[in-house]
Amino acid sequence: MFGLRGKDGGLPRGLRYLGIYIPAGARRFVHALEFLHGGGRFHPIPMWRGWGKMHSASGHDYALYVWFEPYHPSGRGGVASYSAGPEVVGWGEVCTPRGEHFQVRVRGHLPRHIGASTDGQRMELDVYRRPWYYGYVGRWDERPRLEFHGAWHNPDLVLFDYGSLDRAFDADGRLRPANSGVWKSGEQGVPLTLREGDKAEFEAACTGLQGH
Asked: What are the structural domain ranges in the chain?
């Protein structure tokens, strides 16, 4: 990676240790270098985008598009206060069999120092609606909110939602009311494989979902 790889394929140890002392903006640059090969492919800009389909327990199909990039704020303020690893942040979109589209915020985290390859690295993603006016109100409607856990199997990100899709949408594909408290005993959840791709591919898939 431009001559910056260490013996383990990641960044040299000395450069990693600088993250303790240099400003937050510089630490973000270091993690950006490590994410240049997100999904096993080189990206001139350390950003990854992809999409995938989900099949709900009620038999309906949904699709999710995401893009994200490394994010390291000064102080925590991130998605997982217990995680010491780099975080990612971005935006995305969920489309439903009813033809509805929801713009969503995307946050996630990985283990510390992903090195030159994401392959085999665990990752969690939190996807939720965040309107433009979120900064002007104390609380807002975050529905739909989806949570995914999984790992990179380059070039794909293979995830599992542990029931969050079926908690977000009812059997007709409608968004469930806030605080509906829906939870089925033994709920299994659905798998999601995000494959690298652009927004046009996602939109074409969404067109095919309507009525299914």
From this structure: 14-176+184-209
